[in-house]
TrEMBL record:
Pfam families reported in the protein's UniProt record: Methyltransf_23
Entry-linked CDD domains: AdoMet_MTases
Molecular function terms, GO-annotated: methyltransferase activity
Source organism of this protein record: Ascodesmis nigricans
InterPro entries reported for this sequence: SAM-dependent_MTases_sf (IPR029063)
SUPFAM superfamilies in UniProt: S-adenosyl-L-methionine-dependent methyltransferases
Lineage: Eukaryota, Fungi, Dikarya, Ascomycota, Pezizomycotina
Protein name: Methyltransferase domain-containing protein
Compositionally biased intervals (Polar residues): 1-14, 32-41
Sequence intervals crossing the membrane: none
Length: 335
């Protein structure tokens, strides 16, 4: 197993050029789910309804995004987005043979775990999440468990050949401990892969995003609210790299992807990715912002709704060439 060093995945730091008109669309042995801690009983199906969205009770205080059908659709579309971003690859780590034991942290709808299991029939994939939003019927090599990744992991030590963690930043308060647990339960010679985006800033290369942009107002308010909740919205690529090294991982490969929101870029692939992310952002602004800004920040529901509406409108308008960043890191536990 070795990191994939295909040139197509090289770091992307060049400015993104906008096309002339931004109005046309660019789119074209951990056994089964049944155990005492994970059975899908009524008690763990409990929900909390707030501002028109459904949240899972077990996520309260731990993760402020909803878990309803709208959010599940957003997660599945986001998965399609990341596949497109990585040119069809589910991971940046490349494997000579199927990694025997695989863990997907914060698996969400389980779509990554299911596809990885499908592509790697020799792997046994376990997906962990706080919320029971995974399908009940799955391939025989894919298992889902409900648990909090911030608690002590009960897996055997030196167990996993590959640990995957994508976009769990809004649910991890103690990154040092999280990565120490990954290290402890990763096999010597095994790989971990992190994929996280910025929760602290939104970017623009051509000056079209004003300092008083609703995008910036939104991300700053979300970031402050997440911080009050106990999260670490300020982490950037170099921090994740340092955290992985501090946990003991070596051969750390770090990739930076610029992610335009809306079909405004001139270049075809960026325009298509921007169109998909623009679509994702329609419910994404609310998913990431609504509960945290009203429960941990000082916004009323009306103020949060207004701020989110402004951002969605601005994406549609396409005049402010805003992009986010996705940071992907692959690292190895020494033999
Ligand atoms: C933004 S979603 C990403 C889902 C999936 N990784 C993907 O990329 O499609 C984050 C997921 O992590 C889960 N999560 C957040 N904090 C968690 C924690 N402390 N323990 C377990 N799961 C957590 C949430 O319930 C949610 O399903």
């Amino acid at each position: 197993m070795a990191p994939n060093t295909q040139p197509v995945l090289a770091n992307n730091t060049a400015p993104i050029e906008a096309k002339d008109s931004s109005h046309d669309s660019g789119v074209e042995d951990i056994e089964s789910t049944v155990s005492s801690t994970q059975s899908l009983t009524d008690s763990i199906r409990e929900h909390v309804y707030e501002n028109g969205r459904r949240y899972h009770r077990k996520s309260q205080g731990k993760y402020a995004l909803p878990s309803d059908e709208t959010e599940q659709d957003r997660l599945d579309l986001s998965h399609a987005y990341y596949l497109e971003m990585l040119d069809g690859k589910l991971s940046l780590a490349a494997f000579n043979k199927d990694p025997a034991n695989v863990l997907d942290c914060g698996t969400g709808t389980g779509i990554w775990a299911l596809e990885f299991g499908d592509e790697h029939p020799g792997s046994k994939v376990v997906g962990i999440d706080l919320a029971p939003i995974q399908p009940d019927w799955v391939a025989p090599n894919v298992y889902f468990e409900l648990d909090d990744l911030e608690k002590e992991w009960t897996f055997p030590e030196d167990h996993f050949d590959y640990i995957h963690s994508r976009n769990v930043g809004a649910g991890i308060k103690n990154w040092e401990r999280y990565l120490r647990q990954m290290y402890k339960h990763c096999k010597p010679g095994g790989y971990v892969e992190l994929s996280e985006h910025s929760y602290h800033n939104l970017y623009c290369d051509d000056g079209s995003m004003s300092d008083d942009s609703p995008f910036l107002l939104y991300i700053r308010t979300v970031s402050q609210s997440l911080e009050k909740m106990g999260m670490n919205p300020n982490l950037v690529l170099s921090d994740y790299k340092r955290l992985l090294a501090d946990a003991g991982f070596v051969d750390i490969e770090a990739h930076n992807f610029k992610c335009p929101v809306g079909p405004w870029p001139r270049e075809k692939k960026q325009r298509r990715l921007g169109a998909i992310l623009g679509e994702i952002s329609r419910t994404g602004f609310e998913a990431y912002g609504k509960a945290v800004m009203t429960n941990y920040g000082s916004l009323t529901e009306e103020q949060a709704t207004e701020m989110i509406k402004e951002c969605v409108k601005l994406v549609d308008k396409g005049t402010q060439h805003m992009y986010g960043q996705q940071w992907c890191l692959v690292a190895r536990k020494p033999e």
